[in-house]
Amino acid sequence: MSIAVSVVVKPSRLLFALVAGICLGAAAIGALVGLGAVGELPSWLRAICAVFCIFLALTEFIRAARRRKTFHVDISGTGQIRLRFGSVTAAVHRNIALQESVGEGLLVKLLADSTIWPHFLLLRLCAEDESIHIVPILSDCLPKESFRAVSVACRWIAAHNLTPQSHI
To answer: Rounded to whole angstroms, how far apart are CA atoms 133 and 123?
Structure first.
């Protein structure tokens, strides 16, 4: 059995919904504090707290929306991982060759502190230039068979000590 797999990891709608819910909750708390429904603070302090909470919630929501990326992960039969990102979805929709649109990508190593759970993968990948790339993969990012293949390949890489012992 080979662990070789090549997948396009789409941004998780579930993860984005969770982040949006947390941001909405933080904005609601800010609004409640600002309206005086929670706590007994002076009006000027309530206003500052409300503006601060709502500002942070909106900022994080916008940041999360902008950071949604599509990744292309290639894992060879020997455990070598290549990560590509960019306009992968445009290439798929326009039937353009993926290699041309995204480039060669980065050769990366799976770090030892990556999280590999049955329905969630948080891959911490270290490139040759020592930059760290974090790829969250939830079960809604891939078809079920592809998710399982990536999970098995990552477990195989981790079990065969192909990960660095300490991360950078």
So the answer is: 8
Q: Name the residue ranges covered by the structural domains of the chain.
A: 5-12+68-159, 13-66
d(CA 6, CA 85): 13
Judged on CB neighbours under 10 Å (0-12, 13-18, 19+), 69 is middle
Q: What predicted TM-score, i.e. pTM, was given to this entire model?
A: 0.74
Q: How far is CA 97 from CA 1, 25, 92, 108, 123, in A?
A: 28, 42, 8, 22, 26
What DSSP element (H or E) covers 135?
Answer: strand 132-138
d(CA 135, CA 153): 15
Checking DSSP bridges between strand 115-117 and strand 106-110, what pairing results, if any?
Answer: unpaired
- End-to-end alpha carbon distance in the chain: 32
The answer to whether 138 and 115 have CB atoms below 8 angstroms apart is no
Give the model confidence (pLDDT) of 67-77 as tens digits.
Answer: 888 989 999 98
Burial of 110 (0-12, 13-18, 19+ CB in 10 A): buried
